[in-house]
Amino acid sequence: MTSQAGTEEGTQVSRRKLFGLAGAGVALAGAGAAAGVGFDRLGGDTPAAAATSKVDFHGEHQAGIVTPAQPNLHFAALDVTTKDAKKLRELLRTWTAAARRMTAGEEVGPNGALAGSAQAPPDDTGEALDLPASDLTLTIGFGPSLFDDRFGLAAKRPPQLIDLPAFPKDKLDPARSGGDLCIQACANDPQVAVHAVRNLVRLGFGVTEVRWSQLGFGRSSSTSRSQQTPRNLFGFKDGTNNVKAEDTDVLRDQVWAQAGDGQAWMAGGTYLVARRIRMHIETWDRETLAGQEQIVGRTKGSGAPLGQTGEFDQVDLQVGGAGGTPLIAEDAHIRLASRQTRKGVQILRRGYNFVDGSDGVGHLEAGLFFLAFNRDTRTQYVPMQQVLSSKDAMMEYLQHTGSAHFAIPPGLTPTSNWGDGLFA
Amino acid sequence: MPQFRKTSTAVLTSLGALVALTACDSTNSASGPSGAAAGGPIKVEASDTACSVSATTAAAGNLTFEIANKGTKVTEFYLYAEGDRIMGEVENIAPGLNRRLIVEVPDPGKYQTACKPGMAGNGIRGDFTVTGGAQGQSNASAQKTAATKSYATYVENNSSALETETAKFVAAVKAGKVDEAKAEYARTRVFYERIEPVAEKFGDLDPSIDAREADVEPGQQFTGFHRLEKDLWTTGLKPDSPQIADKLLTDVKALVAKTKTLQLSVLDLANGAKGLLDEVATKKITGEEETFSHTDLWDFQANLDGSKGAIAALRPILQERDATLVSTLDKEFANVQGLLDKTRSGDGFKYYNELSQDQIKAFASAVDALSEPLSKVAEVVAR
Ligand SMILES: [Cu+2]
Asked: Between chains, do A169 and B288 touch, taking CB under 8 Å as contact?
């Protein structure tokens, strides 16, 4: 697969052609399996991977969690507008079928954008015609508010699915927080991710409505050792010590919910914390290089911990500087967030950079859309964020403006549907 | 309220150049042995409305000013170098008293004298020219010592005013005089906001004095100025407001005591000047700091003053090393001040919620234009 692959017939199978060529999906899946492992630096091999690769929708866990993070995100939080649990369950089935098709690179419904009646609106909105599956993953989650008295789900609420506490310095916008449901769409092509969310939202009209949504670009952490560590909008490598797909023991211990954790229907699932973090990049850009590196605790170039040489060197919080003071300051981001300081607690991060235009006074409305998965938010994310929001030197340049928490149910078989465990 | 910046301190320590500062520096110069003042003492007659100085030129060297307060208000006398850098000052001259100021002025140039009846405001200014002397002979380390000493005087003046004004504010709160306390609130905070980078050196005191409600950590009590701000403007005084007021005064006194032993370097000054503008950019331009009272522009002015005060102290060093930077800073400081002046109302400012989006945007852009050159100051003084 070269970067020209996209122009060659046979390598790039668009969803329109696929629609015409029944059965081509099998060959496509084979090509995708190889492509998914590729080194995914944006602008490097991504176009090639985008041309052919698919992520399997089915599995023990939902795709889009340890899947090597794709470069684009469209995330939507929705509220359920009906009080009829049956309608909600039916929508979840409809969504499952649509997601199964779209992640395979097919149009959302059998008639697609063009083959239906000319007198009816098309089944598929059409903006992803000619585009391949692009590693699209669709991941769904249930917010704490879904477990109120509307649908009789209160007894199904996992104890881990708490209402997040207030953290110091939060400036949360209710219009960017909460939600009964969430859809996370990640893809190599932003148009494919947007298409997927748009069509699921469309299928949900009358049952759900969008509460807020967020676009993200330039994944800001790696979830696989096959990936290079990307940089966040502060210009620093982000996610060097993230939990990786290859760390299966850590995942079992710190990410995947187990049958005995409280709600058996969540076994194989996980809990997602979504935080919209505005970065004051203009003031950050006026911070000296030495100051920036002290705040982070790493060098800006290589990403090595201060006092060490390689990005992946085991962080040594003890390395001394002048006068015996550790080079990694007491309030440095990596010290406070480190596994050592957090007594072994880790979370799997899957954040994205965002720029939502400018803020009306000439500053970029930019930041990090932080997405993290953990097995128990009460003992993993919450204590970590309490410490960071009150002690992290970086907080001077950050502001949390949105916040949400979701239970992410386990993965699906080819015959099961989202919501099966919840409504069983 | 930005976070305690241990970071910058750590950077500074490793670069060295720490200079010991004590509060007595300025008083020493005021009451020390009479030096060889060229041309004899210069007499200053201060009243409530005038400040007459017997000579407006002198030769470089030790100058002696003899100040007589003929007015009815307690007054102060200052000698300023360009950029309002304090060369020397005497405080607390009660009506009817005479005090003497001896100040070393090694460099010729343009200076200003000022009397401050009531110890507030810009004072009654007069031009003062110093001639002769050996200009620019001072070595870098002497310049740095002079800069930190000059800034220490600035901090000392503002922290003593902070203590005085906080006492008045606290008394009004405790007496249940809501209107009086509201009037005193913004006026008091000015002195805090001017020296905020210094206050932040004391990690535990800054949050207890200046934390916003949203900054309060779990298990921590919401105290300080903003708690009383909320009581005064939103909830009404509460049964524990007097205790919160007492604690505020105790904390402020502790802070003032600590500022006297603080060691600051020229890099602290440079970073502080920049930090104050960052504070404006993220907290004042958004109206976040004074959520209940909307007196953000008072703080804005105070942050700007504080930044200017630090740069004024560094001015001789900057002037010698990068004169273009100095003129850029002068221009941009004036630009921001010009915008602020347009929002003046009475002896204060408009409330944040009275600003138009265009005004907010103009502030943001002017503050960015000033912050960019300010962010280069540290590197210049570190050379
Ligand atoms: Cu982090």
From this structure: no
Q: How far is CA A284 from the centre of its chain?
A: 25
Would you mind telling me the total number of residues written for chain B in this entry? Answer: 383
Q: What is the DSSP letter of A405?
A: E
Element (H, E) at B321: helix B296-321
Residue B284: DSSP 8-state: I
Q: Which of B127, B218, B12 is nearest to A290 (CA)?
A: B12
- What ipTM does the predicted assembly reach? 0.71
**Which pLDDT tens digit goes with each residue over A235-253?**
999 888 889 889 999 999 9
Instruction: State the sign of the Cα–Cα–Cα–Cα dihedral B69, B71, B77, B80.
Output: negative
* A295/B14 Cβ within 8 A: no
- Provide, as residue numbers in chain A, all residues whose Cβ is less than 8 Å from the Cβ of B360: 360-361
Cα of A273 to nearest chain B Cα, Å = 20
Gap from A294 CA to chain B (nearest CA, Å): 6
Q: How much is the pLDDT for A6? A: 35
DSSP annotation string for A111-156: TTTTSS-TTS--SS--TTTT---TT-EEEEEE-GGGGSTTTT-GGG
The length of chain A, given as a count of residues: 424
Contact (CB, 8 A) for B91 and B157 = yes
pTM above 0.90, yes or no: no
Backbone angles phi, psi at B30, to 5 degrees: -80, -35
Torsion from C-alpha of A72, A305, B270, B248, nearest 10 degrees: 90
Give which of B304, B308, B262 is closest to B152, Cα–Cα: B262
B153: its two tokens: 């005087």
- CA proximity to A209, closest of A348, A307, A81: A81
Both ends of chain B: CA-CA distance in Å?
Answer: 30
